[in-house]
Amino acid sequence: EPMARLARLAVVGYPHLVFQRGMNGQAIFAEAEDYRRFLALLAVHAKAQATRIHAYVLMPGAFQLLLTPDTEEGLPRLIQSISRVYVQGFNRRNGRRGALWEGRYRATVLEPETFFRQCMTYVDLSSVRAGLVLRPQDHPWSSCHHYLGEQHDPLLSPHALYWAMGNTPFDREAEYKRDLDSGLTEEISSRIERSVLSGWALGTDPFIDALQKRTKRRLKPAKSGRPALNQPNGS
Fold it and tell me: pLDDT value at position 7?
């Protein structure tokens, strides 16, 4: 029997990392105008769905968002509304039909204190990992320009943990640049990726256990190995 797909998780008030890719590796942004349209839609619908966007990267074949939904349905509705309008327009402009995305979007909820800064760095370094640029600052379609103080991006709502990075804008920008310059270990990058693709929560055990009390949906894989049939107490 195939494993039932996990319901996607959306926990009000916690940051989530969201991935979406083009079908069969195809481009979802063909020209600069596409990126601009997508960001404009994101701004309108994030506001309408009470969802705060903390970081983003748009790449030719994929996008990633780091966001906090402030309502139960905010996250799925946000992605659905943007997707519908964006895909219709993209298809019309490019004379194509049908689906653009590779299946449903992937998402994970994360423990802010442990993983927020790492996920923000992960998002802004994605263009470098994908081989598009040598430095994140050289990729125009990401939130790093805002956080490095290069330009103001009205789409973004900095998370409290960003404000905590320093007392002045200059301090915060310098601290964030240090995060980007030091990058992430292979282990952390893989862990973030695995969590998003599998839909398991990203955090310490106490965080996941506390969160588990708020949702029926399982937040981490069951222990591996088959359950024992003969219990020692003879049951």
Answer: 59
CA distances from 132 to 89, 114, 119, 158 (A): 25, 28, 19, 25
The beta strand positions in the chain, using DSSP E, are 16-21, 51-59, 62-69, 106-109
> Dihedral, CA atoms, 110, 131, 58, 195, nearest 10 degrees?
-20
What does the CA dihedral 195, 163, 126, 174 come to, rounded to 10 degrees? -140
CA nearest neighbour of 74 among 143, 162, 117, 14: 14
Render the burial of 197-216: b for 16+ CB within 10 Å, e for the rest. eebbbbbeeebbeebeeeee
**What are the 10-residue block averages of pLDDT along the chain, 235 residues in total?**
53 93 91 96 96 97 96 92 93 91 91 95 96 96 96 94 94 96 95 91 90 78 57 42
Question: How far from chain centre, in Å, is Cα 17?
Answer: 2
φ/ψ of 230, rounded to 5, equals -95, 105
**β-pairing, 51-59 with 106-109?**
unpaired
DSSP letters along 134-147, please?
A: SSGGG-SSBTHHHH
Torsion of CA 215, 221, 222, 224, to 10 degrees: 180
Nearest to 67 by CA among 53, 57, 56, 77: 53
> What values do phi and psi take at 139, rounded to 5?
-100, 120
Task: Name residue 109's amino acid.
Answer: V
